[in-house]
Design a protein that fits this description.
It comes from Hoyosella altamirensis. The protein is of the alpha/beta class. The protein has two domains: 18-231, Phosphoenolpyruvate-binding domains (TIM Barrel); 235-276, no CATH class. The protein is built from twelve helices and eight strands.
């Protein structure tokens, strides 16, 4: 029997919808995250941990990973001494499912991080600044990068932007285009900070409209909302299956150029349904 993980389902992280950031300063919070319902739980050694709790948080993450529980970990950015300490800890234990690098701003930062991790460890690069956005394609091209993620809060602070969709539309589109250009999986949107369910759903919709296929979150309730909104609807599935039946799964019945994109979308819906139902 495989060891339990902090991933609620066997959802491939390349298409994972909800990415729950959980602070590990208290070990009980790590344990509680097992029942969060998120596709991926990320033990967050950066923003979720106070400066004077970093050492304890690392010890808790090490303890969890040492039990054979593969888990994603968000590490501090390269420009801080915590980055090296985080990687020292991760290099001494097995079970690191993946690493989320905070405040990624250059291809070389990804390379330096990957060099200190077990070979093949996937990396999600968090873009949280103007420089990071300008370097998005280079970051996306770095070996080991699975997806980009948008750190909306720190990005807004860096450039002085508002939180509304129009103010951040360019940044979201830039990350989506960079990901597609480098043939990596679609990016993960930043969290929406609200207690309103309607406002949260609207925040999810903004990312979907931009072409993002995942979202960071801070609570189990939000993780479930994200999963619901980013799962193909029954109507989507019916359309996809009818389209595949009409055009053939291999496109044998395609007659017009406009039908090829329809078939690709239908096949993608079928793939997502299969991925989310495992």
């Amino acid at each position: 029997m495989s060891s339990p993980t902090l991933q609620s389902q066997a959802v491939d992280t390349s298409v994972a919808r909800s990415w729950l950031l959980r602070g590990p300063a208290n070990y009980s919070d790590i344990v509680a995250a097992e029942s969060s319902g998120a596709d991926v739980v990320v033990l967050d050694l950066e923003d979720s941990v106070a400066e004077n709790e970093k050492h304890q948080a690392r010890e808790n993450v090490w303890r969890w990973l040492d039990q054979g529980k593969p888990t994603w970990v968000r590490i501090n950015d390269v420009c801080t001494p915590h980055w090296s300490h985080d990687l020292d800890m991760l290099s001494s234990v097995k079970g690191v499912a993946g690493v989320m690098l905070a405040k990624a701003e250059h291809h070389d930062q990804i390379a330096a991080t990957a060099a200190r991790l077990p070979a093949g460890t996937p990396i999600v690069a968090l873009v949280e600044s103007a420089l990071g956005l300008e370097e998005a394609r280079g970051i996306a091209s770095a070996s080991g990068v699975l997806r980009l993620a948008f750190g909306t809060g720190d990005f807004r602070k860096d450039i002085g932007a508002a939180a509304d969709p129009v103010s951040l539309a360019y940044a979201r589109s830039r990350l989506v285009v960079a990901s597609r250009a480098e043939r990596i999986h679609a990016p993960i949107d930043g969290p929406t900070l609200t207690d309103s369910i309607d406002e949260y759903r609207a925040g999810i919709t903004v990312g979907i409209a931009a072409g993002m296929t995942g979202k960071l979150c801070l609570s189990s309730q939000h993780a479930r909302l994200i999963n619901n909104e980013l799962t193909p609807s029954a109507a989507d599935v019916r359309w996809a299956e009818a389209t595949i039946a009409r055009l053939g799964v291999d496109g044998a019945q395609v007659k017009y150029g406009s039908e090829r994109p329809q078939l690709e979308r239908a096949r993608k819906i079928r793939e997502l349904v299969a991925a989310f139902s495992r």
